[in-house]
Specification:
The chain is mainly α. It has helices spanning 7-31, 36-48, 53-60, 64-76, 98-118, 124-138, 145-159, and strands at residues 51-52, 80-84, 92-96. The radius of gyration is 18 Å and the shape is elongated.
């Protein structure tokens, strides 16, 4: 009879699957000309547009200066549009363009396929169960997409080697 998994073995498996999923997702996004931060920003914009740059920076939990760089990239690719607010000319309103909506939808479909590949050992019902269990396990830890993005960014910084200096 197999013994119950220890907390360490569960953590190790979750870490391994997260690394596999992250690598596959990043490769999938790259094929669409996107990075994870692009996906998160575009997802937040789809759900909460139109948004001011200030509210978007808050939702993404990033500095406004970093947001400008991110939006410059997305705008250069034609995925977002910035315009002055009619109510307050000092503010910029940001929205996904139709090209951004199409690219986001295509990227999300590709990510679903990538997840199916990563979790190929589970059938659809088991993947749904895993998703429900992970949502329950993370309740109170990550409230939204922006929170997940911030955690993802912290993990990447933690895994990155220190700069030479």
């Amino acid at each position: 009879m197999a013994s119950a998994p220890t907390a360490h073995s569960v953590s190790a498996l979750l870490d391994h699957m997260a690394r596999l999923a992250r690598a596959r997702t990043e490769a999938t996004l790259e094929a669409h000309g996107l990075r994870p931060r692009h996906l998160v920003a575009m997802t937040v914009l789809r759900e909460h547009a139109p948004a001011t740059q200030q509210s978007l920076a808050a939702a993404l939990a990033i500095d406004r200066t970093n947001l400008v760089g991110l939006l410059n990239e997305l705008e250069a690719d034609g995925y977002v549009e910035r315009r002055r607010s009619a109510e307050d000319r000092r503010r910029h309103i940001v929205e996904l363009t139709p090209a951004g909506e199409r690219t986001l939808a295509a990227a999300e479909r590709a990510i679903e396929e990538a997840e199916a590949e990563v979790f190929h050992g589970l059938d659809a019902q088991e993947r749904a169960t895993l998703h429900a269990l992970l949502q329950r396990a993370t309740a109170g830890h990550v409230l939204d997409c922006a929170g997940a993005a911030e955690m993802h960014r912290a993990c990447i910084e933690e895994d990155s080697p220190a700069p030479a200096g």
